[in-house]
Amino acid sequence: MNTLDELALKHGTDKSSLCHHYTRVYESYLETRRERVGCVLEIGVWRGCSLKMWADYFPNARIVGLDVSAADLPADLSDRVEFHLTDGTKVPSALEQTTFDLIVDDGSHQSRDIIHAFEAWFPRVKPGGVYVIEDLHAVYWPEYNVGCEPAAAIQYFKALIDDLNCHGRSPCGNQDRDIGYVTRGREADVAFIHFHKCLIVVGRR
Length: 205
Description:
Blueprint lengths: L3 H8 L11 H8 L8 E5 L5 H9 L4 E6 L13 E5 L14 E6 L5 H11 L3 E9 L18 H14 L2 E2 L6 E2 L12 E7 L2 E6 L1
Parallel strand pairs: 1-2, 1-4, 2-3, 4-5
Antiparallel strand pairs: 5-9, 6-7, 8-9
Helix pairs in contact: 1-3, 4-5
């Protein structure tokens, strides 16, 4: 079977080793279960290159793409690929009952949209699945923080680390410690948060 990077190169997506080098990160989470993945969502699909890549990499998966434009989508997508013309920060009614093994946010890269999309879609990640935000270098650029503090999306996920880790047992494990930190209630379903270069991967408990 082809590696994810081979498929990324074949279909011309910028996730490949010729550009962002994201494919090796994805494979570290997904390679051992690629035949068991049943549903994938990508927010922001542009020319559909990564939709083709995901369809080839996950032979048994339904591949769902969202974007605000369908102008550049190719006609030769797999019959397992479906497209919804919609804003990725909202869950369309057609997908309200759908859960996903993998969700990829490659949308507007606006901090505000990244946060809203995560809050809308992360509850729809299956237990054991992952939610990935791409191209986080963009949130350090002023034009991608309209109406937000600089790098607001990064600050959001840094705060999620605090939410996830601030409560726990004492070193001896015989009592819970409460330090008075008030979480935002987002951490209950989070298994892990991993920061990679220009990527965040959040695992669902």
